[in-house]
Amino acid sequence: MIKKSRLAVILCMGILSSFSSFSQQQKSVSVIPLTNLDAFKEPGKNWVISSDAGADFTKEGEIHSISGTGAIVNIVSPKNHSHLITKESFGDIALELDFMMAKNSNSGVYIQGRYEVQLFDSWAMPHPTFSDCGGIYQRWDDRRGKNNEGYEGIAPLMNVAKAPGLWQHLKVIFRAPKFNNKGEKISDAIFEQVYLNDALIQVQVRVTGPTRSSIFEDEQPLGPLMLQGDHGNVAFKNIRYSIPEVSKKTKLSENQITVNPEGKPYLLRSYLNFGDKKLTHVISVGNPNQLNYSYDLKQGALLQIWRGDFLDVTDMWHERGEPQLAKPLGAVIKLSDAPALAVLKNPQEQWPDSIAFDDFQNKGYVLDVNKSPTFQYAVNSMNVNDKISSPTATSLVRKLQITGAPEGLYLQLASDTQIEIISKGLYAIGNKNYYISVEESLNPVIRKSPTGQELIVAIPVNTASLSYSITW
Length: 472
What we know:
This protein has 472 residues and is mainly beta. The chain contains two helices and 37 strands.
């Protein structure tokens, strides 16, 4: 569906351009060290210093620490379930951190110990509420009467929460309440911007007092940072903050044009900026379950995936439609613009960055009964059907059917800085950024690459059919 003036998207795109200059104006960034717990008041035994964390997204509450320093893991028990509270207090703050949820776990980041940004395993929930990941949690007052005690909770603009066991990124720009010389409050606390996994999910949210389960009932100019530790297992790392400069009011555009699928996938051809390249033959596919992707029709490459709203097409459809670019609206994970298939002389040969123009023949695509596309192309004498679908809201499934496969043909499943084996057939890609699932019978191999590591499988000669899934 095409929308010209949806408020959430207007705010998202209007604020986004100002955030870059806003970030550059911030003062120097301070880091809360996680080599020990000295930055916190009386930390409980449920908090453990670690180098990393891991969680099985299929097992309720499962999370474990990995020996070392640089991260912190909260493992709740009946005897140990305390919050983690900084010794230092803060007023206005620009806060960033990474967190990992266990399955069905619940936590929160309380600015000043009073105002909560909810952390929750909201993976694949289509319609988030204030109690989902990235929500500004509600206030609570028993005096309001039964079923009316909760109020002022604000849901995120979209759900971009990842699967349990993956690291997620939270960024908060917060304005503390202000008081006059008599100690009287003259302005409320405001969450100016909240980003989850680099997608803007809250804008200019005003809170009139502490949210539920805060450690203070009053409001003050300053307060500590609190990481909630009594609800569920969670991990944190890369906690850093700065004092934001005075923000400037942003003039919001009235010309944003967005598209979102309703009832069936939405396919859109466009240009796409990918790194330092401008790709000219890209098709983006948006699914009603909010799992979206972009595909290069000249290389057979799965370029990027994202969860959340689909596309901003203002640069394509407003006035003359320059520069003909489509921009994802959700939380984007960049993959690779290299071809998915390549012939290698040996398993150690470097993966090619492209297929020669004369060797690649794009044959378009066909739609199945659910309107999901299968891309068709030929490379020399080899024919490929490449189907990417989202049967559930948890994963994209890619199925390739290949005829005329030559000797030495390989499929690249992933390329990133690092690849970790989680269990049989399950791999964490990047810094636990997303998962790849593949049948172990295909004998996937992790090998070194110029930028880190690659996950590849050898393709049988002549005819082959294989699939793998991408989960995030």
